[in-house]
């Protein structure tokens, strides 16, 4: 087998053969150019209508990148034909190994996309000597082909949460199927208008099929769900309720107690620096910190009360019987009101409005823990790309990171 024939055989450029090869440069600048010309074909079929073309309208040269051969960057000089179809007119010949207007072959694009799932765009671009924008567009097209559409035909329960796009107050919303751990929808913003397209995609049957939605106490989310799926149970998540309690009760009571004893600098410093100790789950407090925590709580009645009620509030999500959970809530609510701690009384009064969504957890053991995992992964994706200016691409990367577990 001759040298060009061997390269043609190894290259797999279907319908083309090697006319000539040239090598230039050395080291990292080594470059191979392979000139490809069409093989003789008795029949030339139109890629649009499939009918036989009468001939070649014109031939143009295209220079495209292929996978490196050994240590050399590989460029193909392709004599690409425009065929003449009696029905469609001049049409560009379809090549299985090269997309219509692509600057790289299909296998190089596939290799770039695979690497982009593990490495930052910058590193992939340096490895293949491509530009950042080229690599990003290749990866984006690959993701659109794989994740551009989503099957919502079996979705019965969902979870939704917001995440920060960047520092400041710019947010996006992610919707998942919690059992399959699949991201179904990502949208810029956290308003009713932001998530409305998801319910439109569900269609009438899909909206009727939805049974439960896990979320935080976002009024916009709840209103849109009720407007589209009034039969769906709203399920409030433990994580967000406890986080809200920590911000609105624990932190404020701690600050108020520190201000109350501002003349005692030592005691005030102990309270001011105890935030993470009070927020930590009791089972995660180690021996040395446990002594500190006990001393702190014994010295301050208000902190002791709000700390114990925080731990007890978590128990509400362990019930599987609605009646028992409601009885437990009534007892917790009474203790909160009897404490006469303003921050705690206000929180309990406001939480009473959301009681049904909390009790729904007895029937639907849904939580947004998977969404917290997604938020952490999102931070990693942003770091790998040094931020995202193209939100559509960013959202595709999120969907690719959580494609779902097969049922």
Automatic annotation (TrEMBL):
PANTHER family: TRANSPOSASE FOR INSERTION SEQUENCE ELEMENT IS1557. Residues 158-398 form the Transposase IS204/IS1001/IS1096/IS1165 DDE domain. InterPro entries: Transpos_ISL3 (IPR047951), Transposase_DDE (IPR002560), Transposase_HTH (IPR032877), Transposase_Znf (IPR029261). Residues 93-141 form the Transposase IS204/IS1001/IS1096/IS1165 helix-turn-helix domain. This is ISL3 family transposase. Residues 46-88 form the Transposase IS204/IS1001/IS1096/IS1165 zinc-finger domain. Transmembrane segments: none annotated. It comes from the Bacteria.
């Amino acid at each position: 087998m001759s040298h060009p024939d061997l390269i043609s055989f190894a290259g797999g450029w279907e319908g083309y053969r090697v006319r000539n090869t040239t090598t230039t440069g050395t080291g990292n600048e080594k470059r191979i150019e392979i000139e490809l010309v069409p093989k003789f074909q008795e029949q030339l079929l139109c890629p649009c209508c499939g009918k036989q073309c009468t001939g070649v309208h014109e031939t143009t040269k295209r220079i495209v990148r292929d996978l490196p051969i050994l240590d050399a960057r590989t460029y193909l000089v392709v004599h690409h034909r425009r065929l003449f179809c009696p029905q469609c007119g001049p049409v560009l010949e379809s090549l299985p190994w090269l997309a219509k207007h692509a600057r790289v072959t299909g296998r190089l694009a596939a290799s770039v996309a695979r690497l982009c799932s593990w490495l930052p765009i910058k590193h992939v671009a340096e490895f293949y000597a491509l530009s950042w924008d080229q690599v990003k567009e290749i990866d984006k097209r690959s993701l659109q082909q794989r994740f551009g559409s989503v099957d919502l035909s079996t979705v019965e329960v969902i979870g939704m949460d917001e995440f920060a796009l960047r520092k400041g107050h710019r947010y996006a919303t992610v919707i998942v199927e919690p059992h399959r751990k699949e991201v179904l929808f990502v949208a810029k913003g956290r308003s009713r208008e932001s998530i409305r397209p998801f319910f439109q995609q569900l269609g009438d049957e899909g909206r009727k099929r939805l049974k439960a939605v896990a979320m935080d106490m976002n009024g916009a989310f709840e209103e849109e769900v009720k407007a589209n799926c009034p039969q769906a149970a709203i399920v409030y998540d433990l994580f967000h309720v406890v986080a809200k309690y920590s911000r609105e009760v624990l932190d404020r009571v701690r600050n108020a107690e520190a201000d109350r004893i501002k003349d005692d600098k030592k005691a005030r410093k102990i309270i001011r620096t105890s935030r993470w100790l009070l927020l930590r789950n009791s089972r995660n407090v180690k021996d040395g910190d446990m002594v500190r925590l006990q001393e702190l709580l014994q010295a301050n009645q208000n902190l002791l009360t709000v700390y114990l009620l925080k731990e007890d509030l978590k128990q509400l999500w362990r019930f599987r019987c609605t009646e028992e959970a409601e009885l437990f809530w009534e007892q917790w609510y009474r203790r909160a009101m009897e404490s006469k701690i303003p921050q705690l009384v206000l929180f309990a009064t406001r939480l009473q409005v959301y009681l049904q969504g909390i009790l729904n957890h007895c029937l639907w053991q849904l939580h947004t823990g998977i969404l917290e995992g997604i938020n952490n992964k999102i931070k990693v994706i942003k770091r790998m790309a040094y931020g995202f200016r193209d939100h559509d691409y960013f959202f595709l990367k999120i969907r690719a990171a959580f494609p779902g577990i097969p049922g």
